[in-house]
Design a protein that fits this description.
The protein has 170 residues and is an alpha+beta fold. It folds into 2 domains: 38 residues, no CATH class; 119 residues, Aspartate Aminotransferase, domain 1, CATH 3.90.1150. The protein contains 6 helices and 9 strands; from the N terminus they run E-E-E-H-H-H-E-E-E-E-H-E-E-H-H. Helix 2 crosses helix 3 and helix 4 runs antiparallel to helix 6. It is globular, with a radius of gyration of 25 Å.
């Protein structure tokens, strides 16, 4: 049984009749962060991210998402870039249709949602161009860079059309 003895000490008691009682220092490293977590009503990182932040952090991801936005702008209705801490999203009507995450060696990870009915079409499009992808239930991940997106513009335009259908079906 632990019983507080003060703000930084606690007592440990053994459940025997001849139990010894001795003070133990409470760990200080978690005290301030625990209080901050309990008192906070918002997320830990409320900083809004901008294009400049991403230009400093991962210019290649910014270049890749710009190329993708240019290619998919004919498919999506008024797409905008949404800069988040961990990714940049192509957003349409407040929904993040496609997300681009920073990776090493000037590569980025493109993630998008596709409903089950359209997944085979998306896989066939990517397979036809020998583009490696990871397929999970209702989503795909593809490692890309600006050159790959520009080289396979027709594939990514078709993928964008499938993503749009998926969001309209939801």
């Amino acid at each position: 049984m632990l019983t507080p003895v003060g703000p930084t000490k606690r007592t440990v008691e053994f459940p025997r009749t001849n139990a010894r009682v001795f003070p133990v220092a409470a760990p200080k490293r978690f005290a301030s962060s625990a209080v901050a977590l309990c008192n906070s009503t918002s997320s830990l990182d409320d900083k809004p991210y901008t294009r400049d932040d991403w230009a400093k952090r991962a210019k290649w991801t910014l270049d890749a998402v710009d190329a993708l936005l240019h290619i998919t702008s004919s498919v999506f209705d008024s797409p905008v870039l949404n800069y988040i801490k961990n990714y940049i999203a192509i957003a349409v009507g407040g929904n993040n249709y496609m997300r681009m995450y920073k990776r090493s060696q000037n590569k980025s990870l493109l993630k998008f949602r596709i409903v089950q009915d359209l997944q085979d079409k998306a896989a066939a499009l990517l397979d036809a161009q020998n583009i490696t992808f990871v397929r999970k239930p209702n989503r795909f991940s593809v490692t890309v860079d600006k050159g790959m997106i520009e080289k396979n513009a027709d594939v990514f335009t078709s993928i964008a059309a499938l993503v749009k259908k998926s969001w309209q079906a939801a």
